Amino acid sequence: MSQINPSPETGRIADQLLRAIAGSAWHGPDLTALLSDVDATAAATRPIAGAHTIWELVLHVTAWADVVRRRLGGQPVEPSPEEDWPVPLERTEAAWRRDVSAMREAHERLRTAILTLDPARLDEQTVGKPDSLYVLLQGAVQHAAYHGGQVAILKRALHA
């Protein structure tokens, strides 16, 4: 049964995820802010040889928000390499804006799942993994912040 009011711990985890994606991050700009002035051309550009593009990072972060949400729901999800690092199917401004919106929506679905999680489950082992659900959720927050940092670096490289 889902909770109407989150526990203090699940509320804190959900807050940290929100901060990494959509505001008031302690470390600097959140991922949404970092992407706000990026257009499709810049998102698809590879300014650092061997690095992912901003667009690829957005698709990857989106995929993993879904993987974490599904694992939280008890599914033993193992993304294929193509699911782990999707490539943009079309490189238009509309497609870019759709993918950024999908990233925010995927994280909002994950955040809702966290807020409705029974806090007694935080110590449960993630299905098929050695870590607890608590570690899984903290990893989702860290993942968003880590890739946000990569986006910041790529933006600087685009303007160098």
Can you describe this structure?
The chain has 160 residues and is mainly alpha-helical. It has helices spanning 8-22, 31-35, 40-44, 54-72, 81-84, 93-115, 133-158. α1 (8-22) runs antiparallel to α6, α1 (8-22) packs parallel to α7 and α4 (54-72) packs antiparallel against α7 (133-158). The longest helix has 26 residues, at 133-158. The radius of gyration is 16 Å and the shape is globular. The model has no long low-confidence stretch (mean pLDDT 95).
The ordered H/E elements are: HHHHHHH
Largest sheet: none
Task: Calculate Rg over CA atoms.
Answer: 16 Å
In which range does the helix fraction lie? Answer: 55-70%
The residue ranges in which pLDDT falls below 50 over 5 or more consecutive positions are: none
Based on DSSP secondary structure assignment, what is the total number of beta strands?
0
Number of helices: 7
Shape: globular
pLDDT averaged residue by residue: 95
Task: Please indicate the percent range of residues in DSSP E strands (runs of 2 or more).
Answer: under 5%
Which structural class best describes the helix and strand composition? mainly alpha
Distance between the termini: 52 Å
